[in-house]
Amino acid sequence: MIQLKSKYITVSLLLIGMGICAQNPVIQTHFTPDPAPMVYKDKMYVYTGDDQNGFDFYTMTKWRVFSSNDMVNWTDHGSPISLESFSWARDRAWAAQCVERNGKFYWYICVQTVDNNLAVGVAVSDSPTGPFKDALGKPLVTTGTWDNIDPTVFIDDDVQAYLYWGNSKLFYVKLNKDMVSYEGKITEIPQSVEAFGGLRVPAKSDQVLQKQEQYKDVYVEGPWLYKRNKQYYMMYAGMTGRSESLSYSTSNSPTGPWKYQGKIMTDQPTNSFTNHGGIVDFRGKSYLFYHTGLLPGAGSYGRSTAIEEFKYNADGSIPNILMTKEGVNPIATLNPYQKNEAETIAWSEKCSTSENKKNGVYVSEIRTGGYIKVRSVDFGTKGASEFSASVAAGLDGGILEVRLDQLDGNKIAEIEIPRTGGWEEFKTLTSKISESVSGVHDVYFVFKGKNISAGRKLFNFDYWSFKKK
Ligand code: FUB
Question: Which family, according to UniProt (predicted)?
Answer without folding.
Answer: Belongs to the glycosyl hydrolase 43 family.
